[in-house]
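User: Here's a protein and a ligand (iron/sulfur cluster). What would the complex look like?
Assistant: Let me lay out the input and then the predicted complex.
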Amino acid sequence: MSGLYIHIPFCKSKCAYCDFYSMPHREELHSAYIDALIAEAKQRCEEVGRDFDTIYIGGGTPSVLSKANLQRLVFSLSEIYNLSENGERTIEVNPDDVTNEYVDFLASIGFNRISMGVQSFNNSTLKLINRSHDQDSALAALEVLASKQWNYSADLIYGLPGEGLAEFADNLKLLLKFHPKHISAYALMIEQGTKLWAMVQAGKLQPCPDEEFVAIYYDLCEALRSSGYEHYEISNFAKPGFRAIHNCRYWDFTPYLGLGPGAHSFDGSLRRFNPANLKDYLGTLADNQQFFKIETETVVDQLNDYIFTSLRTAAGISKKFLELRFPSYAGQLWNELAKHPQILTNAEFGRVDEKNWLMSDAIIRDLLIV
Ligand code: SF4
């Protein structure tokens, strides 16, 4: 079955490291935005079929929506599509929106998984990166989720300003007290156009040195392995049985439909994307016009996408999948994989060892087909 992604581009404030399509939210736009999403959902209801067994409402910060708007969105999607009863239904939330009452509401409208951005427990770091929550609200949210035994994922970022090996270890230790089923830990990327980028350019901030990233990454892998987590993708760790099914879809060519400005879709052969422009999105959908654009992708582009994503996963590149999907290139690529000193191959898979994932860009560059 396929995955459904809904993008909510509103946030309380703009985090200093963020280059996702999001903007400070304006409540007066929410209702029109939900109308537009519903119109797009109806318009594209045959694109990858109507059956979805994962739904992921991300952003942005979906928890800035009022309960009435969120409920209207979820109920409308249930009427338009066949959403599997037992499927994975995830929503991203900010810690300062999580209360007993709010997560009970989420459960009542069908969500069974939460993804929450903690990033750090250090108040001065949180302030510097402009997060809307503080340590107390993160701890309170984790208490709520743990006490209700929610299936949730918590995000941390390593390499944040002022946080080295010891500080990240403290963050991780604190998070592990709550035994989340899933942890996403991202190396800080300082992207052009972000506030952190401007601070680096102005000489007000020194990026974390590469050696420190590597040291933190090794500590992270070891700490989570010894706590019973499977490291299944460069930034993702899960207790057995709790991998993020929806996100795995992006790495194995399963079709998915993405709605909202900035969202991407893949129907099994064609990729489409929605331009990241809320104003145009609202206007176009109000006129019931098509908003998405088609990405022109060659077979080689698709193969390179597969190499790029799969070599960051524990599963790696599947020989069978290569032969089925890319028969003209499978032999050549498999020979390259077998020869590469940092790739481990067996009869079925070629993969990069966990200890080299952080350096996988260079390995991937060697293998991309041009
Ligand atoms: S809450 Fe998430 S999407 Fe919003 S600005 Fe921060 S990092 Fe970006």
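Summary: The chain has a mean pLDDT of 95.
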